[in-house]
Amino acid sequence: MTALASLRPIADSTLRGQTVDRLRDLIVSGQVGAGVRLTETHLAKALGISRGPLREAIRELVDIGLLVSQPYKGIFVRSVTRRDIEEVYSLRTALEQFAFKQCWAKRTPEALANLRARHRALTKVIDSQSDPFGAIERELELHGWCYEVSGHTLLQKSWTRLRPNLQFYFVMHQQAHGRLGPRREAHDVYIDRACGDDLEAMLAHLEDHMQQGLKTTITFIEAME
Amino acid sequence: MTALASLRPIADSTLRGQTVDRLRDLIVSGQVGAGVRLTETHLAKALGISRGPLREAIRELVDIGLLVSQPYKGIFVRSVTRRDIEEVYSLRTALEQFAFKQCWAKRTPEALANLRARHRALTKVIDSQSDPFGAIERELELHGWCYEVSGHTLLQKSWTRLRPNLQFYFVMHQQAHGRLGPRREAHDVYIDRACGDDLEAMLAHLEDHMQQGLKTTITFIEAME
DNA sequence: TGCGATTTGTCCGTATGTATT
DNA sequence: TAATACATACGGACAAATCGC
Questions:
Q1: Do the chains contact at B152 and A94, CB–CB below 8 Å?
Q2: What is the mean pLDDT of residues A137-159?
Q3: pTM
Q4: Do A13 and B71 touch, CB atoms closer than 8 A?
Q5: CB B128 within 7 Å, strand C
Q6: Which residue is closest to A55 within chain B, CA to CA?
Q7: Which of A219, B35, B51, B121 is the most buried (most CB within 10 A)?
Q8: Strand order from edge to edge, sheet including B37-38
Q9: In whole angstroms, what is the distance from residue A217 CA to residue A165 CA?
Q10: Could you tell me the domains of chain B?
Q11: What is the largest CA-CA distance in chain B?
């Protein structure tokens, strides 16, 4: 991995791609709440584009899972059940364990320095206590490290698909609980193990880490049902 | 899992969905070879539909990975490298191991009978030696069992996305090597372990099984490079 | 129950941008 | 450089399905 990789994904040249980005950000930032219906004509007018590329962008977001489509009825921002969160966390555990197996031998000093830099960026944003949304992004950026270092393109794609859903959950959780964001020490062991020499210890910690994340994330569901 | 589940995915009501199915079958059956360029206007005329739903269907296949899109240049049927196959097999190993962990406690007698039925269907088609393409479908149907029984919808989706790519590789391999199809005894141990009581033994066998599958599948790449 | 309004799904014509020759 | 081919995008139109009255 080059240290410069994946700083900012360059803006897509096609209007469809740009619309995917705009809509995704709109949803995961919580600006359009879960369950809200989106009508093509209104949305197209609001975005200043025609229905063609908008429909294609919508299809992509449906595929990721952020939108759900009911033919001839409409498209809606996804609603979240307890089971959804449990499934994402369990699959994510398996994927991230696989990612660490794949990247374990590729952890160059530069790569590890990059990981620590991401951790510092996360704790810094948490300490500032002014940007909980940014903290969520930093946390996901931290977890993206193992996927990038793995060099496994298919695995990276899986993470790219999973990540917006996680971000959506986190933001929903945060909006339900006020300004929280991730805990400051939540990733200390994660970083230590990731930089250490015991792969099995890392894999075992991932189970705990995810279990803990699931428990805290899922609390906001209780209040909704 | 109900025994009747997932026999035939009902045909999609929208033209877009139907087109996705048609194009997917066209590609995984090998009727349009790897690397071939598809032009929208010609394809739309050939399919008897307009470019709107066709473009949406194409986007979906790009997302799955069967097509690759180069903006303003064109869309092409994917070409396969050795690395692609290695990545699919390694990720698939991780996913299928996870699937068996998830489904292990849910293996009712009915579910196990269903698994054995799929195995019988596979060996029967292999023995007939007249339908290698059907044999490939039956093999994938066999491997789909653990995903269905797991009851994990996200995991099932992952398999649904991975499966067409595998089918594409298998058919390419078969076309390069004449009428082969999967070996008859290749899944005997797989079935035994899946019906047994030792989860760890199943997981270990999956490593071997996939390693073996990778080795045989990858041979056709050698002849192309 | 039926009717009208709204929205999605689909088609077509046209214009523009990009790549290739 | 010009010309061709094609992907991309726009706008208008109609059909089909759904929903509310």
A1: no
A2: 97
A3: 0.92
A4: yes
A5: no
A6: B56
A7: B121
A8: B37-38, B74-77, B67-70
A9: 12
A10: 14-77 (1.10.10.10), 82-224 (1.20.120.530)
A11: 56
